[in-house]
From TrEMBL, chain A:
PANTHER family: OXALOACETATE DECARBOXYLASE ALPHA CHAIN
Protein name in UniProt: Biotin/lipoic acid binding domain protein
SUPFAM superfamilies per record: Single hybrid motif
Keywords from the named record: Biotin
Domain Lipoyl-binding residues, every copy: 90-169
Classification of source organism: Bacteria, Pseudomonadati, Myxococcota, Myxococcia, Myxococcales
Length: 169, 503
C-alpha cells in the first residue's frame, strides 16, 4: 500500500510503502530505508511501536487533514494521504502549494481584519486576514503568490476551526 | 480587624483555584465568579458558591467592578481576592471595596496609585533613593522634546506606555532615522491598549537580566523581602520560564537588591505581597523597572524555596495580623516554573483553543501543577492562553532542570496544541543550562529552540503516522455496510456470500 506523507514545513510529500505482515507487524519503506515495525494499537488510540528493539509510545491528535504525532516529547505535524485521496485533494488544493490554495482558520476565533479583496494580486507570505483568539491577533499569510479569487472572511464575524477564509489561485 | 470568613475570588483559571485551595485549608468559604464562557470551568466547581457575572469578554464580566461587588454582596462575602490580571491592580476597585465594607486582599489603593503609572513610580523611586534606569520621569509631550532627550542619553532607547504593562506598546529604537515613526507607533499602541497615549523614554540596557524581588509587608510597617526570581526567559516581554535562586546573583547582590526592594515598598506604605522588578546589567548594576502590586504568576517558585504559602500570608496580612518573619528566609534548594500555554510554537505561537480530549498531568516527588483544566474541558478563545504552571523543587539547579524535563516528558495534552515541546527545548538549551541567559535569550535562540527536532524521531513519527492512517482505513472499511462493496464480511459481497452458503 502506497501512502504520501508530508512533514510540516516540507513542500513535497514523500512516498511511503507499507506492507502489512499480519499480527501487528509491518514492513515500511521510506526514503530508501526499509523498517520492520511492530505497531500495537492500544486503547485511546495510543500506539506502542517497536522498531529495531527501540520502544516508542505514540499519541496522535487529528486536526483536519493534518495529524499531530507526539513521541518522546516531540510533536511532528504530518499530512498523510493515499493515492486516491491525494488526487482528490490535489483538486481541492490542500496538499501542495501548486494551484488553488484555500486558507482556513487555524483555530476558532474572530475575524478582526480582512486585508485583501477579491481580485487582489498577493505575494507569498503577504497577510490576508487577521483572526483574534485568546487575546492575540494572528495574521494569516498567503501560502503562494497569486490572485485572491474567493473571499469568505468577513470582519467582525466569529469563525470555527478550519472555516474557509480566502482562496488564492 | 475581624477574621475573614468568606472570600470572593474575582478571577478565573488556575489562580482562582490556587487561592481557593488555601482558603479551604484555612477554613474560609469561597465564592467564584464566572462568565458565560466559564460555566464549565474548574474554578466554578472548586468554590463553595458561584455567581454569574456576564458575557464572555472580560470587559463585560470579570472587569465590571459593580458586578463583582454585587456578587460579593449577594454571596455574603466579607473579602475579595483579585488574583492577578483583571482588577488586581485597579486602585478604584480597591476604593470601591473599601466603600462597600469589603476587605480587599492586597495593598491599599494609595500604594497602587503610587506604583501604577510607571512614570509616577519612577519619580517616587528616585525620591526614595532607589536606582532607576536612566530615562524621563514624565511622559514626553512632543516628538521634538523626545528627540532632544534621546540625543542627550544616547541610543538605543525604549519607548514605553506610561499606563502600560505586559510589554504592550513598547518600542525599541536603535537608529535616529527610525525615531519619529517608532514614536508615533508607540503612542498609537498605548492609546489602543490603555486608552492613554502618554509615552516615556528609557535607556535600553544591553543584555539585561530580569530579576525581581518578592516583598511582603504587614499593616504595621514591617516589611521583608523573600528573595528573588530570575525571569529573563521572556518572549514578547511575557515570561515563559522562571526560577529561584537566580543563577547570576551572589548572596551579597541578593542582600543589596532585597534591601532596595524593601526600601521601595516602604516608600509607598505597601501592605501584602508585591514584587519589585529590576533589570540587572552586564556589570551587575541593577535598576528599578516597576513594582507589581499583586500576587505574581510565578509565586510558586518562591513558595518552593521558602516553604511559605503566600496566599495564606496575604489573607493574614489583610486580617491585620503581624508579620511573623523578621528577615528573608535563606533560599532552600532550587525551583523552576514553566508556563504551559495553549499555543503552537511551530506556527508562530498561534493560539490553540479547543477541547482537551485527553490529559495526563505529571506527578512524582516535588512536582506541582497549578492548572485550571481537565479532560473534556474546552479552552475558550476569549481569555489568555496560559493553561497551567508546572513547577518543581530540587536540591540543586541541575537537578531542578532534570526534574522539570522529566515532568514535562510525562505531560500529555491532546485535542489542543501546547508549547510543551518548546519548553523542553529551552531547558535543554546549553545557554539556559549554563544559567547566564538574558532577556534576549528566547529571541536569539528562536530558530534553535523551534528547530530542536531529533531527525530520528521525525522519521519514527512518519512511520507511526502511516501505520495510524492504515489502521484507521482498515477500521473504516470494516464498518462499511457489506452491501456497498465494503469489507464488512472480509470484502465479500452479499451475493457471493449467499452463493457460498448455498454450497
Amino acid at each position: 500500500m502506497r501512502y504520501f506523507a508530508k512533514q510540516q514545513g516540507q513542500k513535497e510529500a514523500a512516498p511511503v510503502d507499507l506492507e502489512p505482515l499480519g499480527n501487528d507487524q509491518y514492513k515500511i519503506t521510506v526514503n530508501g530505508t526499509t523498517y520492520q515495525v511492530d505497531a500495537l494499537e492500544l486503547e485511546h488510540g495510543t500506539l506502542s511501536m517497536l522498531v529495531d528493539g527501540e520502544s516508542y509510545n505514540v499519541e496522535f491528535e487529528e486536526n483536519g487533514d493534518e495529524l499531530g504525532v507526539l513521541l518522546r516529547g516531540q510533536v511532528n505535524r504530518i499530512d498523510v494521504a493515499d493515492e486516491r485521496r491525494l488526487r482528490l485533494r490535489a483538486a481541492n488544493a490542500a496538499f501542495s502549494v501548486e494551484g488553488k490554495q484555500l486558507v482556513t482558520a487555524p483555530m476558532p476565533g474572530k475575524v478582526v481584519k480582512v486585508l485583501v479583496k477579491v481580485g487582489d494580486e498577493v505575494k507569498e507570505g503577504q497577510g490576508l486576514v487577521v483572526v483574534e483568539a485568546m487575546k492575540m491577533e494572528n495574521e494569516l499569510k498567503s501560502p503562494k503568490a497569486g490572485k485572491v479569487t474567493e473571499l469568505f472572511a468577513k470582519e467582525g464575524t466569529a469563525v470555527e476551526n478550519n472555516a474557509k477564509l480566502v482562496v488564492v489561485e | 480587624m475581624p477574621k475573614i470568613r468568606k472570600v470572593l475570588v474575582a478571577n478565573r483559571g488556575e489562580i482562582a483555584i490556587r487561592v481557593m485551595r488555601t482558603c479551604k485549608e484555612l477554613g474560609i468559604a469561597t465564592v467564584a465568579v464566572y462568565s458565560e464562557a466559564d460555566r464549565s470551568a474548574l474554578h466554578v466547581r472548586t468554590a463553595d458558591q458561584a455567581i454569574f457575572v456576564g458575557p464572555p469578554p472580560s470587559r463585560e464580566s470579570y472587569l465590571v467592578q459593580q458586578r463583582i461587588l454585587d456578587a460579593a454582596k449577594q454571596a455574603g462575602a466579607d473579602a475579595i481576592h483579585p488574583g492577578y490580571g483583571f482588577l488586581s491592580e485597579n486602585a478604584s476597585f480597591v476604593r470601591a471595596c473599601d466603600a462597600a465594607g469589603l476587605t480587599f486582599i492586597g495593598p491599599p489603593a494609595s500604594a497602587m496609585d503610587s506604583m501604577g503609572e510607571k512614570t509616577r513610580a519612577r519619580a517616587n523611586m528616585i525620591k526614595a533613593g532607589v536606582p532607576v534606569v536612566p530615562g524621563t520621569t514624565e511622559p514626553v509631550a512632543s516628538v521634538e522634546e523626545a528627540r532632544a532627550y534621546v540625543e542627550k542619553i544616547g541610543l538605543p532607547v525604549m519607548l514605553k506606555a506610561a499606563g502600560g504593562g505586559g510589554g504592550k506598546g513598547m518600542r525599541k529604537v536603535e537608529r535616529m532615522e527610525d525615531f519619529e515613526s517608532s514614536w508615533r507607533s508607540a503612542k498609537s499602541a498605548a492609546l489602543n491598549a490603555f486608552g492613554n497615549d502618554a509615552v516615556y523614554i528609557e535607556k535600553y540596557l544591553e543584555k539585561p537580566h530580569h530579576v525581581e524581588i518578592q516583598v511582603f509587608a504587614d499593616q504595621y510597617g514591617n516589611t521583608i523581602h523573600l528573595n528573588e526570581r530570575e525571569c529573563s526567559a521572556q518572549r514578547r516581554h511575557q515570561k515563559v520560564v522562571e526560577e529561584t535562586p537566580s543563577p547570576i546573583l551572589s548572596p551579597e547582590l541578593r542582600a543589596k537588591m532585597g534591601e532596595v526592594a524593601v526600601k521601595a515598598a516602604k516608600a509607598v506604605n505597601y501592605v501584602g505581597a508585591g514584587t519589585v522588578e529590576f533589570l540587572v546589567d552586564v556589570h551587575r548594576n541593577f535598576y528599578f523597572l516597576e513594582m507589581n502590586t499583586r500576587l505574581q504568576v510565578e509565586h510558586p517558585v518562591t513558595e518552593w524555596v521558602t516553604g511559605l504559602d503566600l496566599v495564606a500570608m496575604q489573607i493574614r496580612a489583610a486580617e491585620g495580623e503581624k508579620l511573623g518573619l523578621t528577615e528573608a528566609p535563606r533560599p532552600n534548594g532550587h525551583s523552576i516554573e514553566v508556563r504551559v500555554y495553549a499555543e503552537d510554537p511551530s506556527r508562530n505561537f498561534m493560539p490553540s483553543p479547543g477541547k482537551i480530549t485527553y490529559l495526563r498531568v505529571p506527578g512524582g516527588p516535588n512536582v506541582r501543577d497549578d492548572s485550571g483544566v481537565f479532560p473534556g474541558y474546552t479552552v475558550p478563545n476569549v481569555y489568555d492562553p496560559m493553561i497551567s504552571k508546572l513547577s518543581v523543587w530540587a536540591p540543586t539547579r541541575r537537578e531542578a532542570i532534570a526534574r522539570t524535563q522529566r515532568a514535562l516528558s510525562e505531560y500529555v495534552v491532546k485535542g489542543i496544541t501546547t508549547n510543551i515541546r518548546y519548553l523542553r527545548a529551552i531547558l535543554a538549551n546549553p545557554e539556559f543550562i549554563e544559567g547566564d541567559y538574558d532577556t534576549s535569550f528566547l529571541t536569539r535562540q528562536h530558530d534553535a529552540l523551534l528547530g530542536a527536532e531529533d531527525p530520528k524521531l521525525s522519521e519514527m513519527a512518519l512511520l507511526a503516522s502511516v501505520v495510524h492512517t492504515y489502521q484507521k482505513d482498515q477500521k473504516r472499511l470494516k464498518t462499511l455496510p457489506a452491501a456497498t462493496g465494503g469489507q464488512g464480511n472480509g470484502g465479500v459481497s452479499p451475493w457471493k456470500l449467499a452463493l457460498r452458503t448455498r454450497r
